Amino acid sequence: MPTIMITGAAGFIGGHVAREAERRGGLSLRLMSHRRPPAGAAGADPATARPDPATAGPGTGAGFGPGPGPGAGFGPGHGPGAVVPGHRTVRADLSDPGSLRGVCEGVDVLLHCASQIGGTPEANEAVNARGTAALMAEARRAGVARVVYLSTASVYGRGAFRAARPEDLVRNPGSPTSGSRAHAEDAVLAAGGVVLRPHLVLGDGDRWVVPGLARILRALPGTVEGWAARTSVITAHDLARLLLGAGLAPAGDLTASVYHAAHPVPVTVRTLLGAVAAVAGPAADPAAENLTAVRARELLAARGIAAQGLDMLTSDHWFDSDPVWRDLRCTPGPDFEAAFKELAEGYRRALLDI
Length: 354
Hints:
Number of strands: 15
Strand content: 15-25%
Mean pLDDT: 85
Helix content: 25-40%
Oligomer: single chain
Low-confidence stretches: 36-61, 66-83
Order of helices and strands: EHEEEHEEHEEHEEEHEEHEHHEHH
Structural class: alpha/beta
Strand order of the largest sheet: 3-2-1-4-5-7-12
Radius of gyration: 19 Å
Shape: globular
Distance between the termini: 44 Å
């Protein structure tokens, strides 16, 4: 029975990975959390176990801004940190290398899903860059056979990306979070690990992407030029399947060390925003005005909303993910519209306070 350690197990993606591992069975799980144990984990208090703020963000760092409180609106058993009982919980802090001593002993596969999202540049550097480097040193010392790191397509910075492959792109991170996660990638790759880069991640526990899109929709009196752009999305459930699959795949099946992680079929921004508008409540009539991107930025700035999210909606952000599905012999889940229907009610509740 292989032993898998999941960092950020009380967070958005880490919680989904833990539940997917439990569904597969035949695995011994070690769940690492730096402030609170995951709900349902051995030693956790169900009344107080909540997502770790340092790890509850998405795999993307997409720039839409934080949403409601951890796990808001999705109910018990569905948000981040809602993992099954009976597995070992490890308390360690990536910003404190000394606390990592011994955490990888007996571990076969390390799924590194913990990241600092936002906060100060110093906090990002301490957790994402130096913390990951220290964790990789521990993994090497303990003889961990496979490391998989959940990174972000935000390491590429701004631009238009059309069926883009990792080998054809140059990283150009535009924020302290993305920059520090690029440094984390370097540490993982130097240790022989595998990196997965998702773009927009949707699902139970999302506090960033859909809440951020809802804010943009409510701030604008119509559509914006460029909303025909295509973008890559993935559900947290599918991303968890890929992370676990990358951790367990035979070495000979992996043809790359860096993969994009998304549903193979991109979504138009218009379709994405239409789905969000349907669950976000009252918003301006999208047919009322067709705004230029410049005017839309002015309107967002007047409401204190960063324009970075808008920039990502007005140009293609479509990343080729066929290789990861092919190498892992994994079938993608439902397309965007079918998947979002499954998530709609949870998002509707979560967005009540937006």
